[in-house]
Amino acid sequence: MQILVFGKDGQLGKAFKGLFDSLTFLQKVEVQYVGRGQCDLANSAALTEFLDQSNADLIINASAYTAVDKAETEADLAFAVNARAPEIMAQYTAKHGATFLHYSTDYVFDGEKYGFYLEDDVRNPLSVYGKSKAAGEDAVARVFVNSIAGQYAIFRTSWVYGDGGNFIRTILRLAKEREELKIIADQYGVPTSADWLAKVSLHLALNPQGELNAFPSGTYHAVPDGETTWHGLAICAARVALEMGMGLKAHPDAIKAIQAVEYPVSAPRPMNSRMSTDKLQSVLAASNSYNDLVKGQGFPHWEIMVREYVQKLAAAGLA
Ligand SMILES: NC(=O)c1ccc[n+]([C@@H]2O[C@H](COP(=O)([O-])OP(=O)(O)OC[C@H]3O[C@@H](n4cnc5c(N)ncnc54)[C@H](OP(=O)(O)O)[C@@H]3O)[C@@H](O)[C@H]2O)c1
Questions:
Q1: May I ask the CATH architecture of the domain 2-165+192-225+274-299?
Q2: Could you tell me the distance, in angstroms and rounded to a whole number, from the CA of residue 7 to the centre of ligand 1?
Q3: What pLDDT was estimated at residue 26?
């Protein structure tokens, strides 16, 4: 089996690399990691040619234009990478009867819903980034409407952290430098570990023999259990960092809650990013997955994974 992972230098791309390296049962599998140097995803002709020269059975698109505020002034680039590129990957997948795993975002919603978003809820992105990701979702789905070959999953996720720049690392860095932090406490969502997201994705796609599973094509919300705010996440990260002996100037009680309106940014964010994962959990429970980690246990709580992440950062002297 040939696997292509786009976005090799991003948080999720690196998580897939770590995961595949650990899956020793995956024999006869060749994984190719693709970064900007191998293929510029903003160049549709280059991407089409790259795919035509591949023999991929599984395409994992962990790449994206993720600079949410910058996208407000770089719409063409954001749409090229977040909408046109996944469309081309989907076309290859449908043409060759392959499998496509793609990622989207809570930012396709406007956050006005009370409660947890379902996969089919009306989208109303507030930002250029959100619009480009929503256009990517539409483009992928459209390719498969009239196709009898191939399958796809779009995992909508939120607040991703892994090996790379992210909110948790920014907070820990600032807490080392400053006596007090002011963090938004009225935007709700779920922090998601890139490692966990990669694992969940492969649970859907691979069977116990390491072969491709058949699964219902469509969109799946993929976030851990629970919910918090940016402020709640910052407090949690700082608390664990202190327990680990990290020298912080700003202790949790010096992390003050503010409202989003007090922290203006170019791209508006949804106030509510909570997404129900019932659909993914029930499909995984019924699937012939490569192991039973997810089965029957529900998804783990975000706080458990953030604790582990901060502990690892502290132990490695990072952040
Ligand atoms: N991060 C979040 O909080 C978050 C939240 C919700 C959803 N998501 C979604 O989750 C997925 C993974 O996100 P992530 O956090 O892993 O993103 P990330 O760390 O920003 O990585 C994105 C990768 O895409 C690559 N890329 C961007 N433009 C490219 C281009 N023109 N050609 C080739 N490669 C290009 C980047 O390459 P370079 O390294 O060379 O720049 C980078 O390695 C994305 O679909 C994202 O939209 C993320």
A1: 3-Layer(aba) Sandwich (3.40)
A2: 6
A3: 80
